[in-house]
Amino acid sequence: xxxxxxxxxxxxxxxxxxxxxxxxxxxxxxxxxxxxxxxxxxxxxxxxxxxxxxxxxxxxxxxxxxxxxxxxxxxxxxxxxxxxxxxxxxxxxxxxxxxxxxxxxxxxxxxxxxxxxxxxxxxxxxxxxxxxxxxxxxxxxxxxxxxxxxxxxxxxxxxxxxxxxxxxxxxxxxxxxxxxxx
Length: 182
What we know:
The protein is α/β, with parallel strands linked by helices and 182 residues long.
């Protein structure tokens, strides 16, 4: 399991192409630091990931962004989950994605309340830990802020992201960039 304050240490011992489970606090300064570092080292991947989750991206049916899948393709799943806390948000299209060359990595989102805190569990099919994971966390945090404001008028604190990747990996050259080696 990757713990939020030991990201670099966990990368060293991480088995490639194996499952990875992480927990990170959405409101932590540690996450803020990871996001800033990610923006500098992988700016294109960071911005692309944020856009894919953004509410504006829901209109891009050609690209099949996560936002399109969450808000349009499978109806507006956020409205349903706000009413029924026992529901899931799904981005996997069982009819078409199995045959696609470019399959979505994000599969499921579960938003749940614990007293006055909103948490989020996510499941990814496959993920590049360095190019995408931190961008995913930044995007999920923004989506949770949006969800909290839209459906609950901001009355909840943001809690944790419970993140499970069925298969996680990174490229060695990206690892060298991340730890500051050429």
